[in-house]
Protein 1
Amino acid sequence: MGKHLFFFLVLFFASSGCEQSIHSSTSKSDINSFKSGEGALLLTRFKSLEDLKKVVQIQYGAAVPFSTGAITPQPYVRLTHRCGEREVTSILKTGVNESDFLRARNGNVWDKILLLLKSPFAVWNRRDLMIIESLGRKRPPLFGKGDVAFFDIAAAMVYNISDDDFKSMSSEDFSEKGYLNTFNHITAQAIMTSIFSEKVADFVADVHERNRLPELITGTFNEDDLTDVENGPMDNYIDLINNEWGQDLGKLLRNKYGISHHTHWTPQLLADYLNDVQSYYSWAFQIAFKPFKATDEIIIQLASKINIVLIDVPKIIKS
């Protein structure tokens, strides 16, 4: 990791405020006020939901969503995470989830109409959501042998952790719910935000988190939920906060590289982008990384895939 790049990212996160679309505060902080582990969160650092509440403020409530014309208060959960003197907040409300999209895709015309009524945003942004879905999963029949997805980039980042830091870490840190999960959420959200928008990235994140555990919004967990560290509410709440950090990072890198829907992603651009993301992880977890190179096969594959999906959307939709 280059010293100048590391300093640049630390300076940004230490001195700039959050600019979330629906929630945030803006503040300044001295670089020296940041400590190891602040910012991004790692599930393996917490043993219970009560343990997480020492770091993340969790509030449950209900409000009338006037914008939808509803008259019944709808529940929500507000998560606030302070890093130095900065705060990021995630608000999860009731809404569509991944199962609703599967029913619309595999069902009849009425299932599709129901999705439209429940979430006009999904229909208005169908193009972007289809592209994101393609980037989020492997599709060798469409993109060829060796196709890669967001998860593969996260796995490569785990592999890039320096040998010295790797040796000092626990086996839990390298489990599916360790660094791999944190890297996957933050990196994917950063890329989505850079290419599309924070609102689209946040929509995708919330659709995913609502799917398995609807009690996240109300806090009415049973004992099994509370004792299941890897698949209980603590995992989802950490994901929600990490999604916010990813969106912040995505906005920074979008501005730095001038990224838009029309950007042509060269292997060098993608390598530089992902090395910046790794620099953020270096700051958050006080670990070092081996850098990505433009000649890495995974970089070449993903850069090519991004360019294909941004241009050939009709082919993706038909498939």
Protein 2
Amino acid sequence: MELDCLRPLLAEAVHPWLEVGVGSGRFAQALGVDVGVDPALAPLQIARGRGIRGIRANGEKMPFSSGHFGAALIVVTLCFTATPRLLLAETHRVLRGGGVLVIGTIPRDSAWGSWYRAKGEAGNPFYRQAHFLTVAQLLKLLEEVGFQLVAARSTLTQPPGDALQPEAAQEGVIAGAGFLALQAWGGAADLRRLRSRH
């Protein structure tokens, strides 16, 4: 369901594509991403086995020239960084002008966000380090670093804990949805044009 939510937002983007926080490469492989960065070596080795060119690097400081990528994907990664604004700004830098950013996130203000936060508070070693953002917080960060939101899709309106039934994604930001995909435009060239006006 998450892949179906994300896929149309990448469909017309120009390659090469980058995933920031690629992990083991499950999303990257399924969506046709070319390159992934992640600070953790073990998941990167799995991603490489899935055919992804994996590079060990932090999303806040990536070893790519400005304007290199036509699209960037960030799936449930922003909640695991202490500096989401910096990660988004660096992603903006490595995207070409008019490049596409696609974010997959679990909104803090959803039943799924609350469920994962409760797991973290109970000591889950993975989720206790997560800091989920509200939709409003994420939209504000995107605007601050120079991205323009152009589309959104939502899924997982079912509550957590039950057996999930297949669910088609809905267009727009659906209140309470457990997974939200955002498409935004922007990149290094756009930022240079913006600065030249001031």
Protein 3
Amino acid sequence: MDTEYIRMTSPLLPLIGKLAGHRVLCIGDIMLDRYVYGQVERVSPEAPIPVLREQRESVTLGGAGNVVRNLVALGGMVDLVGIVGQDSAGYEIAEQISSLPQIASYVLTDSVRPTTLKTRFVANGQQLLRVDHEIAAPISSDTEQQILQRIENAIKESSIVILSDYAKGVLTSTIIRETINLAKSKNLRVLVDPKGRDFSRYQGASLLTPNRRELSEATSSTIATPEDAEKAARKLISSLKLEGVLAKLGGDGVCLVMKDQPALHDRATAREVYDVSGAGDTVVATLALALAGGVPPHESASLANIAGAIVVGKIGTATVAREELERELLRGDSWQGADKTIDRAQAAEIAERWRKQGLKVGFTNGCFDLLHPGHISLLRQARAACDKLIVGLNSDNSVRRLKGESRPIQNEASRATVLASIGHVEKVVVFEEDTPIELIKAIRPDVLVKGADYKVEQVVGGDLVKSWGGEVRLAKLEDGHSTTATISRLRKKEPSSQETTSS
């Protein structure tokens, strides 16, 4: 078996910079993903079903829209072609697209066909039910012609083409065939995220990115191993005149098979899997930008696999940014010992993921200069009030403004390292401002903890936390512990300048 095994390591790092700045034409089924989050505390007396007490909801672009979100997050620019309805979901999609300046919209509005809307009800991190509102019938011939006109206009500046097929009727055989022919005439690759059992309509495309089930059904094969995937992929390459196939094998990673080349089986997988929704969108987006940037197919597949591994560690249809790819590569095998210090954007995303898992997010903050038992007591009490504790740490500049030019004694990197080593602390975020109010707005903690030397109404951000249903707690202080007092005692014991010089 001609299979090349490689390991994802830092040599891929320089390639991440090649993802940005390319224009991608994305055509396909645009959806709106709606999530309703709440708590289940009882069973309905009307039927043996759980009663969801709704707490909040969120909406995001799904389907081909999620491919676009990933392209933008990775630094790409997008021409988007698809259809939405004249309904509230369609208006929401239009608003979200318009908020991203990297997207040029060639989206058609249909007065008859509703926008595809998927509503998921989630409690304690688990989906209870999904409701789909859609029409999956193929679009009319008149609509086909309008879509093709948009494709002809949009493809002029494109570097690569993605067909995101969710079998909702936009990617008809005619549109697929005409798009592939048009792209070939311009020497552009066409990547297809396929759907259904009949892949013959994708004939002549550059690469297909089926998952295990799709590859199995399309080739009437059993895909139990990467070797099985390679055989099935070579069958497709031969019958459909493809350049290659990237098979997404879940826990087994990916298998890239290029015509007349050894296969690549990249086994890298996510450390924690929370939600596989939209992972295929992330993979095809990363693969497209890497190829557009001149990255060889094998390395492009490895980068796409890393991105997919990251995104399944998030809840819902999510995206991956270039910075996350860099951190993952730098992290390497030291995942479990990875630095707990993160930035504000990461903290906001992680906090949201924890909440979607039904976990209570706590927050406290301070300078934590010369950590003492009083600090440890505060952190212990804060952690006892929540499931996951994020600590905001004043930067060196912030401490100087608050405490004077002689402080801090330890720089922010040292203070963050000490905090991160404490078991009660899940994440540490350094902030530059005098107060943590902006950090609190980003994280939206469920519990805000400060020492009892404050009153509840004096706690910065307390009113905000209570406004979204959170609580403010005051931690009991440990007597006899003060960084300022400790520093004062140390300075009294310092030798005079004359004694220092003479020694």
Protein 4
Amino acid sequence: FVADVPVRFHTALAETGLIRTVDGRFYPDEPILWGDYVMLLNRLVPPGGLTEWANPLEQALGLTTAPTVAAHYPSQYYQPDRPLVRAEGVMALAAKLGANHEIAANTLINNNLQDGRQVPPYAREGVAAALVQGVVVNYPLADQLNPTQRLTRGEAAALVCRASTNPLLRQQIDAAWVAAAQRPEEVPAPIPNAGVWLTNIDSQVLFSKDALATAVDQLAGLNFNTLYPTVWNWGYTLYPSPTAQRQMGIRQHLYADLRAPSPGANEDERDMLQEAIELGQRQGNGGDSLV
């Protein structure tokens, strides 16, 4: 891969301090280890503090917002001294960039990558998010990820360069190597009672009124006409419930977190259920139905 890249590619990486070597060599064709790759990503985006909800990979990346596209990554798979495959590397990059979960992630992957069906289940959300972010670099064929092949040091550097906000680094990556993420141009015809489940697991859609409003607008544009908001998870109500307050001492527990909330904890007293009803009722074309 790197043999076809100009010498300025290595120079730019060295000048920004993203790549450091002890003996002056980079060894671009060698597999990169998880520990080295995480270090590279943390130089790209400084890590945050440790969080109790995070799995080992999320902790290593210093992610501060849940849920992430790395949430389904098996805890035992993250080993700093283990080489990783390309799908893992792309997923970790998407998580580090804070990329959101995508609607129809499987369709995005299968439609835009020749070998999309080979992407492991735990990495599919992350690969879809990275595709939409435009940070998936494949060489020589942009639409061939080779998801189960080991990620080389040169390939890892290319991913980081593409994801960087530094124009000096981004310009090193030929646009012809960047995988496209084209969505279907035609929206399906309306389907009676086409509904969507809204949850606080692996989705941030319920965590703010702005996010919920954006989601409802997008779903209405896709001809969905029914919302199914989750109202109970992990033994708690997601909306303010006087009954829950009376019986359990916990009024609501909206945010995706396996820890039990503290009695009397205030989650801004947002009533996501009422918000969903009001936002749904404002939509036309049959979009005012909410179950």
